[in-house]
Specification:
mainly alpha, globular
Length: about 110
């Protein structure tokens, strides 16, 4: 359940990837593209970028406090679903391939 907070807010609700991900999926499936986009923008604001430790790059943090090894293994795969793939109702492994994309850094 969403909790009220005073920092990192969307409206009056506390922000974390764990809250934004199911919200993003629901907003997309419910035909609310602008609200979905706001959730997606937050999710895209918390990954470890090229300035982070090499082994952590591309991981998506649980919240805007940054990388936490205790939560990142759960937050990263959940966040991927919130970035705009099919809704959870239409999710399928059809056409999937093994492997992990590499974050290109310059």
């Amino acid at each position: 359940m969403l909790r009220e907070a005073t920092t990192a807010q969307v409206g009056r609700w506390s922000r974390s990837a764990a809250m934004e991900i199911p919200a993003a999926q629901a907003l997309k499936a419910g035909g609310r593209p602008l609200a979905f986009l706001k959730a997606k923008v937050f999710i895209l604001s918390v990954p470890v970028d090229c300035s982070g430790v090499h082994a952590n790059r591309g991981a998506i943090a649980y919240d805007d406090n940054g990388y936490d090894p205790d939560t990142v293994a759960r937050a990263t795969p959940q966040a991927i679903l919130g970035l705009g793939g099919p809704s959870l109702a239409a999710l399928s492994a059809s056409g999937s391939k093994p492997g992990v994309p590499v974050l290109l850094c310059r």
